[in-house]
Design a protein that fits this description.
With about 350 residues, the chain is an alpha/beta fold. The chain is about 25% helix and about 25% strand. It folds into two domains: about 10-205, Rossmann fold; about 215-354, Adenine-n6-DNA-methyltransferase TaqI, Chain A, domain 2. A seven-stranded mixed beta sheet has the order 3-2-1-4-7-9-8, sandwiched between helices. The longest helix is centred in the middle third of the chain and has 13 residues, at about 160-170. The relative contact order is 0.10.
Amino acid sequence: MASDYYATPESLSWKLISASVQSRPRVVADFSAGEGHLLAVAEKKWGTRIKLIANDIDYGFATKLRRRKPHWIVSSTDFLAVHKGVCARNLREYQGLVDIVILNPPFTYQGKHCCTTDLCGVEVTCSPAMAFVANSIRYLRPKGEILVVLPSGALNSSRDQACLNEIKRDFHVRVLAKNARNSFPNCFPSTALVKIVRKPKQGRKPVHASTKSASLRVGPNVFIRRGSIQMHNVPDDTAANCVPLVHSTELQDGDVRLDARMVRSNRSLISGPAVIIPRVGRPSRQKICIMSTKQRVALSDCVIALKFQNIRQAKDAKSLLLDRWRKFSECYTGTGAPYITVDRLSEFVFSAKE
């Protein structure tokens, strides 16, 4: 048993799960399930017809759950490594398909109080609890919910601020209740119940290219991210904490050529494997480029990246764009210079995969 495991009391489980507005969810998941207390309450609330997904890094917990709940889908995966492609097959299949994620995540991870993960193509450093939330997003349906027990300080700490800001760009984050210190037996943490839901599309704030970059998940394996760095604001910078800049001029003959141009930025970052295309201008086959390096790069506001879990997926995506070139090139429209949007690109990718 993990040393920092504390089972969620049934009364607290009911309070958290009752915050869901869904009357008939199809798939409910807990990625730090432990002994399965949260999912057991979900099963009482919604019945045995729903699919219940339980994961825990502790193989002992997973083995016991398989015996006690043979109708549940159980895995034993290090959930804080799923962004690296480390994931049980029966867990990977449900990316983008979960209606409700319920979590009481560990507040530390292998003795560490900080870890790094990937959120919509952006590398962020945060607490283990917030990393569980970030990694859960890839499993949500568009109208899915995350119901989570978090340390009270997670919503205000500088450690989690970058990750939380990325989440809040596309999600509403609401504190449901602050728990009493004695809510958990034999420990006295300061915790809160939090609900996270995606913002309605029409309710999102407009994105300004100079400060933000749009991102969107299309299916379980790909994020689409638009760059945000305006070229006229890029200084010549060679400091040690700079990263390579990818502009449309770096897209050459199907490859991303990382020149000496560097930029200091903590936004609009992405690492490979990815396919990077121009956002503006007449589309060219030579500009559909694969970036295989896992080094972080910054994207200018003239390019869009499709980030994948492995290089094979990236190569397949490039082939798809080239094989359906006529349809893809029609996504570039505009009264002046033709351009493509994240929405138009995602619609093309989604329809092409059907």
